[in-house]
Amino acid sequence: GRHGMDFEEMEDEDLGGRMRRRPGADQEAEITISLEEADRGGRKSISLQSSEMDSRGRPRPRTRTYDVRFPSGVTDGARIRLAGQGAEGAGGAGDLYLKVRLEPHHAFKVTGRDLETEVKVTPWKAALGGKVMVPTLSGLAAIAIPAGTQSGQRVRLRGKGLGGKGDLYAKIQIVVPTRLTAKEKDLFEQLARASSFDPES
Questions:
Q1: What is the three-class DSSP state of 82?
Q2: Which of 136, 159, 169, 174 could make an S-S bridge to 154, C-beta 3.0–4.6 Å?
């Protein structure tokens, strides 16, 4: 506006310099949910403590409980707005923003809506190819790995990420038996003699 004064300030001047009735401040808090809850979506109760002034102007703690709805596929760091649930002010209440935090999961690494899980495979299955079972948020799924699969290779399962919106990556880890039977040792020795494969050279 003119002379660096905006319209709202000019309006305040016309009212004899009286303060406008401002709403209360917006507030922020965190809500922690499991990966399964983020996948399904749903509701959760959260209790937050705030400080309110009593009639003598002394702060007194107050606990408020909120019923929070969150969508399927909600990601870590997403913000949920609860309108009018923030601090009280002369012009009404501000908003409360809840930042979503996902609990760490034992089976999945989460990046946005994509998930990654490790799948252990025998050397012969990696060499010959075959079916392996992969954990997903909705139970086990069978995937086919091609012959010659390498350790660290990732297989993508489309739509098996958070809320069906992301993907799931199965990271293959080839595991060698720690103890061999006499028969297994004999077969491995036969393979060592028969094979010309040498990744060390």
A1: strand
A2: 169
Sign of the C-alpha dihedral computed for residues 80, 83, 88 and 90 taken in this order: positive
Residue corresponding to tokens 């937050």: 48
Query: Got the DSSP string for 95-164?
Result: -EEEEEEEPP-SS-EEETTEEEEEEEE-HHHHHH-EEEEEEETTEEEEEEEPTTPPTT-EEEETT-SGGG
What are the tens digits of pLDDT across the range 148-196? 999 999 999 999 999 999 999 999 999 999 999 999 999 999 999 999 9
Q: What is the chain's mean pLDDT, rounded?
A: 88
Q: What is the pTM of this model?
A: 0.77
Question: Which tokens hold the place of 79?
Answer: 């913000």
Distances (CA, A) of 22 to 3, 25, 36, 43: 24, 9, 40, 31
Question: Are 105 and 135 spatial neighbours (Cβ–Cβ below 8 Å)?
Answer: no
Which one, of 8, 70, 12, 21, lies nearest residue 43 by Cα?
Answer: 70
Residue-level pLDDT at 176: 93
Q: Please tell me the distance from the alpha carbon of residue 65 to that of residue 46, in angstroms, as a whole number.
A: 6
DSSP 8-state secondary structure symbol assigned to residue 179: S
Phi, psi torsion values for 98, nearest 5 degrees: -105, 125
Torsion angle of alpha carbons 32, 35, 37, 43, nearest 10°? 20
pLDDT over 80 at 52, yes or no? no
